[in-house]
């Protein structure tokens, strides 16, 4: 390759094409989700087996994670093509079809479930651990693992959303 056709002064040690980037991003998303799930399982196992305090992980702690997971499933199962209008006349009320409105409402519900999961985990951390004064290290870790699990699910959803909107020519469409 000649020097006039290069973007950078140095050559990159590896070449990532579209397919390897897409696969690597999907695998990274799966790793993030599995780390979040493992954090919830770890908090539950610690609460059941070796927790010395009176605070334990219950179903209330799992509700935010379940909401985040449902939101992730809803957001990433939508067909992104249905969100964008087919005509170039603009986004007035006449140009948006019924299927676009339905897709946007379902997308809003999915993102709302993600937000409810994240804010719910922070609420559980505050109401169950911080306000009663359970701030010592092994006990507070159960609440922070709940928040960390929901952050991992949200990051996994963001990665999957980005990789699903990349077209074949490496441009973002949405």
TrEMBL record:
Statement: the UniProt record of this protein carries the keyword ATP-binding: no
Organism superkingdom: Eukaryota
Transmembrane intervals: 21-41, 53-75, 105-127, 147-166
Mode of membrane association: Multi-pass membrane protein
Subcellular location: Membrane
Family recorded in the similarity comment: Belongs to the UPF0220 family.
Protein name: Vacuolar protein sorting-associated protein 68
Species assigned in the record: Pichia inconspicua
Classification of source organism: Eukaryota, Fungi, Dikarya, Ascomycota, Saccharomycotina
């Amino acid at each position: 390759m000649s020097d006039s056709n290069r973007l950078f002064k140095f050559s990159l040690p590896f070449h990532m094409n579209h397919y390897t980037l897409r696969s690597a991003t999907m695998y990274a998303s799966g790793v993030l989700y599995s780390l979040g799930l493992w954090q919830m399982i770890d908090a539950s196992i610690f609460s059941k087996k070796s927790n010395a305090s009176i605070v334990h992980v219950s179903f209330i702690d799992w509700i935010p994670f379940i909401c985040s997971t449902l939101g992730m499933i809803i957001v990433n199962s939508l067909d992104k093509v249905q969100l964008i209008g087919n005509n170039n006349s603009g986004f007035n009320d006449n140009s948006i079809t019924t299927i676009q409105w339905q897709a946007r409402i379902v997308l809003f519900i999915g993102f709302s479930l993600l937000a409810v999961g994240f804010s719910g985990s922070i609420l559980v951390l505050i109401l169950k651990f911080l306000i009663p004064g359970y701030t010592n290290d092994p006990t507070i870790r159960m609440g922070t693992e709940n928040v960390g699990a929901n952050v991992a699910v949200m990051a996994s959803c963001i990665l999957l959303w980005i990789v699903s909107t990349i077209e074949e020519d490496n441009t973002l469409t949405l």
